[in-house]
Amino acid sequence: MYRKFIISILLIVVVFISSIKVLDDVSSQRLDRAFTRSVTVFAIARGLNGLISVVQGTEVYATPAGVGVNFAVGQVLDPLNDMVERFSWVMLMSSVSLGVQEVILRLGKTELVQILLALSSAVIILMLWSRQLWHKSSFNLIFKAFVIVSFLRFVAPLIVLLNAAVFSYALEPKYENAKISLELTQKESKVLVQKVQQKQNQKHSWIDSLNLTKQLEEFRLQMQTLWTDLHEKFSLAIDYMLTLITIFIIESVLFPLLALWGFMRIFREFLSFDIAQIFEPKLRR
User: Fold this and answer.
1) Domain map of the chain by residue range?
2) Does the model's pTM come out above 0.85?
3) Which residues, 6 or more positions from 242, have their beta carbon under 8 angstroms from its beta carbon?
4) 62 close to 209: Cβ distance less than 8 angstroms
5) 3-state helix, strand, coil in the chain (%, to 5)
6) Buried-exposed string 234-260: b where 16+ CB fall within 10 A, e elsewhere
7) b/e map of 95-131 (b: 16 or more CB within 10 Å)?
8) Residue ranges of the alpha helices (H) in 21-110?
9) Sign of the dihedral through C-alpha 207, 213, 218, 219
10) pLDDT by residue (tens digit) across 202-224?
11) Which pLDDT tens digit goes with each residue over 38-88?
12) Within 10 A of 265 (CB to CB), how many other CB atoms are there?
């Protein structure tokens, strides 16, 4: 008797939780935040890509009295350019994963799923408490249908909420640090790029200079300093992007797949279990 009572209560609770949609609202908010993080970081990366487009191929010339000095500053951007392309691919993969979760989340909220869930649970309860309606094969079939519909209804919200919990407690500090640092690096790099452009457009009165060698050396040192600073900033940007790539792969790909695999294992166990055998002896008495 207590088994039938517990199962009946659980079925009613599942249908009730499904109808109030609190789980959906919370999971939708968490998913929106994930989208916002993705868009924010991708915008920063695109800003760096814009700097690459401006500087790549830029050369600074100084040719006083036939003596040439040439600085191809765009060469320092090649590693960052490759990293931005990889990062764009990861962000695309992350967006697709979030989009799939959103589709499954919306599918689970449809009225059809809610009706099927309520109808199957009502039939199960009736079969449990009525000997005339009891039929072992039909009970197993309907119960498995209830499990399938419940899986569709709750798997996406649960994965989103579990993912959000993992992000909050394990990944968020690293994400915030990498994002803020990447933003700062972008701003500092923009300043350096502007200095490079100024050097490119600068006109030197080399002929009027009385100390050509000193002028050339100062110019060379200035450009070398700019080159070193750019290289340092872009190396830092690569490090921050690697950190963000790791975070987004874990958050948007690895953990959802791992959680889905775990739910699928539980789901398969439910489908293979003969739930009717628990109640059949009691109903025959």
Assistant:
1) 20-110+155-274
2) no
3) 83
4) no
5) 85, 5, 10
6) bebbbebbebbbbbbebbbeebbeebb
7) bebbeebbebbeebbeeebbebbbebbebbbebbeee
8) 22-55, 78-108
9) positive
10) 555 544 455 556 666 666 676 67
11) 888 888 877 777 777 766 655 555 454 444 445 555 555 667 777 777 887
12) 9
- The answer to whether 134 and 285 have CB atoms below 8 angstroms apart is no
Q: Give Cα 1 to chain centroid, integer Å.
A: 47
Q: Which residue type, as a one-letter code, is found at position 281?
A: P
The secondary structure of residue 275, as a DSSP letter, is T
Exposed, middle or buried by CB within 10 Å (0-12, 13-18, 19+), for 58? middle
Q: What span, in angstroms and rounded, lies between the C-alpha atoms of 106 and 150?
A: 14
Q: Of 149, 36, 160, 145, which is closest to residue 103 (Cα–Cα)? A: 160
Strands (E), the chain: 59-62, 69-72
